[in-house]
């Protein structure tokens, strides 16, 4: 799914994303709009409640506030979750399911109201494929 407009606001091919206090500003390359927006029910996503979109690793550029970004990792320590060290807002993360992508917080896209998005599916992060134990060979 690709969304080019939300509530009458166009998603720009180069769209700014910022935390609440403005210390962190990113530029996202969104030539196809918001791609594959979704929620996740894993332990961290359930708590942050964000809708995330996807971009390739080279689709995010830190414009301002790299020094304000903080990294949080847990469990397998593959995913890299970033948030503003000043206001605490989650901005983006490098995915565990696809480390060649960043997920970004749609609610941080400047001018975009994530509550105006149509139905947003929820991924089953509780039963993540990387957490499954492979069956024993017989």
Descriptive tags:
138 residues, 3-stranded antiparallel sheet, mainly beta
Verbal overview:
There is one protein chain. This protein has 138 residues and is mainly beta. It has one helix and 14 strands, in the order E-E-E-E-E-E-E-H-E-E-E-E-E-E-E. It has one helix at 43-48; strands at 2-3, 5-6, 9-10, 14-18, 25-29, 34-35, 39-40, 52-56, 60-64, 69-72, 80-84, 90-94, 101-105, 122-123. It has a five-stranded antiparallel sheet with strand order 8-13-12-11-10, with no helix packed on it. The chain has a three-stranded antiparallel sheet with strand order 4-5-9, with no helix packed on it. Strand 11 (80-84) and strand 12 (90-94) form a beta hairpin. The protein is globular. The model has no long low-confidence stretch (mean pLDDT 90).
Rg over CA atoms: 15 Å
Q: Could you tell me the number of beta strands?
A: 14
Q: What is the average per-residue confidence, as pLDDT, rounded to a whole number?
A: 90
Q: Which spans have pLDDT < 50 for at least 5 consecutive residues? A: none
How many helices? 1
Question: What general form does the structure show?
Answer: globular
Question: Termini separation (Å)?
Answer: 41 Å
**Topology as a string of helices (H) and strands (E):** EEEEEEEHEEEEEEE
Q: Strand percentage, roughly?
A: 35-45%
Structural class: mainly beta
- Bin the helical content: under 10%
Strand numbers in spatial order across the main sheet: 8-13-12-11-10
Q: Report the major sheet.
A: 5 strands, antiparallel
